[in-house]
Design a protein that fits this description.
By secondary structure, this protein is mainly alpha-helical. It has helices spanning 2-10, 27-33, 51-99, 107-110, 117-152.
């Protein structure tokens, strides 16, 4: 029971670690956002308040920084998943498979790091890649099925 709790606290069992973001907006910023014509009921026709150009000029320098930070975070997340989470998941599964037959030491979970470690990383990476690519094939399959059904009627 304690092993399951410890592994779940580490995030073992998910393919990729979950990232969360928190945004804080002050009341004056919120009032500034809500002062546009859409919030005042003037949403029809031409929307020209002049604030868009100022906002674009103010945020444009930060767009590149945000994209770079997102790419670095994605790379760190993928490395974390590939080199730590996936081998620990394999070790967890090995622990449970062996504990069905006899008492198994906790070190079985981390024994993956002593065996051919990069083989486990490679196999799990290819497995996750096949799953990701397979999930991309589902969307065209459903759209093709819907189009076929619509053309048949």
């Amino acid at each position: 029971m304690g092993l399951c709790l410890l592994l779940s606290l580490l995030g073992i069992g998910y393919s990729f670690p979950r990232l969360t973001a928190q945004y804080r907006v002050t009341s004056s910023q919120l009032n500034g956002m809500m002062s546009g014509p859409v919030w005042q009921g003037n949403a029809g026709g031409g929307y020209t308040s002049g604030n868009e150009e100022y906002l674009l000029q103010a945020l444009a320098p930060f767009a590149g920084v945000v994209i770079i930070v997102m790419l670095i975070a994605a790379a760190i997340s993928l490395c974390w998943a590939a080199f730590l989470i996936n081998p620990l998941t394999v070790g967890r599964n090995r622990y449970f498979m062996e504990s069905r037959q006899s008492a198994t030491p906790f070190s079985t979970v981390t024994s993956i790091f002593r065996t051919p470690y990069l083989n486990v990383v490679k196999v799990m990476l290819l497995t996750n890649l096949k799953i990701a690519l397979g999930s991309l094939l589902i969307i065209p399959a459903f759209t093709g099925l819907i189009a076929t059904c619509r053309s048949a009627t």
